[in-house]
Amino acid sequence: MKLRLPIGFVLGCICAAVLASNASALQMYTPDYNDDQIIGIDFKGVAPATALPGSPWTISNGGEWAIGINRDGVRAVTSYGFTPSIKPFTIAADGSITSPQPTLVGTGGFALAMSPTSDLVYFLGSSAPYGITVARQAADGSLTYIPGSPFASGGAFGDLAITPDGKYLFASGSPAGTVRRFSIAADGSLTAIGSATVAGAGVMQTSPDGRFLYVLGSSGNDFVHCLAIGSDGSLTEVPPAYDVGDSSTGKIAVSPNGSRLYLPNSNLDQIVTLASSSTGVLSLVGSTPVPDDYEAAAASATGELFFVRTNAGGGLYYSKPDPVTTIPPVPVQLVAENWNYGTRTAFRPGTGGTAGALKITPNAKPLSFTLDASGSTGFDRLDWSTGGIAEVTRTSATRAKFDAPKPGVIPISVKAVDSSGCASDLLYTGQLFVCTGNPNAIKSASYDTPPWITSLKVSPSKVTSRTKIKFKLTEKASVSFYAQKPLPGRTVGKSCKKQTSKNKKAKKCTRWVRASKTFRKNGKAGRTNSVKFTGKVGKKRLANGSYRLYAVATDSAKGKGPAKTARFRIK
Fold first, then answer.
1. pLDDT in tens, 79-134
2. Among 177, 227, 295, 524, which is 20 to 30 Å from 50 by CA?
3. Residue ranges of the domains in the chain?
4. Closest by alpha carbon to 546, among 485, 494, 488, 502?
5. Which string of b and e fits 54-81 if b means at least 16 CB within 10 Å?
């Protein structure tokens, strides 16, 4: 049977299914330059957060400035700002940092980006010859420079960002007021392909769909710029740039759907929320007054926001934007820490669950059926949805009953969402992974609701020249009719069979045997259809006696509904 669903549906949980919690389960890591440490927390939706086993970790002395975690969630790196070096490490299942590898000396960096499509890591040099260093991370976590590294030597860049498809890299600030563009070859090497002018270009982040690059101006150029990314890596500014009003805005967070930007500003003591339209036009939504020194923001897959606050009151803070206004409330502290710089927070990437193949079982009433995705694994919840409907029904059950409001052929899907809110979509910020995107996290199909005969009557039941067959349908269909006559039988299992010497002592029953040829009538939905019936089918008239009319509806897609019967008599 084909899977098909109508436009809306009502969920009925089966087997006492419990609705899944909205709480996240995130492992997060932030480098602490001030104390030469990495802070790791386990966030389950409430404050305070729980420290990961062994946190904080002292990986090396040198001032951790940036951190990155590979898409496998196991291999990671941290870079140092003033003692040029990179330290690779691995992460255990419980979130603890283990197996530190040898330090890679000679670069370091105030920013890094994990490649979204390979095991390459890109660093900004923090000392001569500066430029962009590229290293490949082996299976054991160790790092090796690739040939040609560093690229664009001599350039003291401020930040970098990679497109989610892994094709282009952008580096800001060298020369000042520009965003340099590079194409990324299969081996990870970079080729300069031009630049875009952006006054004071500094902090950058890509939109989740890879269509836009958001660039924050600095040094008196207090604007947020949106640049459209072309298929060739070109950058075209989408006016107008938004005036931040102060150059102390830190790392930007972009919502998972790309519609909101969150900018913490340590001088104006506020978090500014901007809207980004489908064409990239920026506009103010509102602002949240906060205490001093909020300097960096990050957004989870479920839209929760995390902020690094430095100096007095320093630590990692959390806020969930209002679902209507999309403005975040004043954040609450998850962990206290004396941070000196607002560095980016890295999420351990969510991998999504695996959705089981969709199966369907019609229920014993019109337009009602049960969907089954019992082969699903690694999920915190399943999201069931219908095509063209924004509303999603979420449940932890792998089987769910649905009632469709009207018949039709409608696409359906089930998505296996893990505890971090990740499923089938890659969510990448331009530097770090939030979700790696599991193509097997979603299964899709369509369900063609079978045509039901909701009422069937032979009126009057004692057939005369005025008798009509009256019937109603859930949808337009062709209905096949034929007469059945009752004969005595014996119950064998769940069936009524013809009496034989073997079953003659079994319980008596009535079996219905075909008594006429088939005749058909087209019917419309939602109205009483009728066809004249005089007891004659084709050229043959039924003999006197009791009968029942057996009817089955078939729609244009050849879908068949359940049979319906009605009694009548010929006399």
1. 886 777 888 999 999 999 987 788 887 776 778 999 999 999 999 988 888 999 99
2. 295
3. 34-155, 157-246, 248-340, 351-424+436-448, 453-570
4. 485
5. ebbbebbebbbbbbbbbbbbbbbbbbbb
Which tokens belong to 243? 């005036």
The CATH number, out of the four listed (3.30.230.10, 2.60.40.10, 1.20.1250.20, 2.102.10.10), of the domain defined by the range 351-424+436-448: 2.60.40.10
Paired strand residues for 183: 168, 191
CATH node for 248-340: 2.40.10
- Tell me whether strands 536-537 and 104-105 are parallel, antiparallel or unpaired: unpaired
Can you read off the two tokens belonging to residue 323? 């679902």
Dihedral (Cα; 387, 389, 393, 397), 10-degree rounding: -10
Q: What residue type is 10 in one-letter code? A: V
Q: Do domains 248-340 and 453-570 have the same CATH topology?
A: no
453-570 has which CATH code?
2.60.40
CA distance 382 to 356: 10
For residue 439, the 8-state DSSP code is G
Q: pLDDT tens across 4-49, in order?
A: 333 333 343 333 333 333 446 899 999 988 888 899 999 998 889 9
Contact by Cβ (8 Å): 330, 13: no
Residue 306 contacts residue 300 (beta carbons within 8 Å): yes
| Residue 288 CB partners (closer than 8 Å, separation 6+) | 270, 271, 273, 319, 327, 328, 329, 330
Residues near 166 by beta carbon (within 8 Å), at least 6 away in sequence: 115, 116, 117, 118, 184
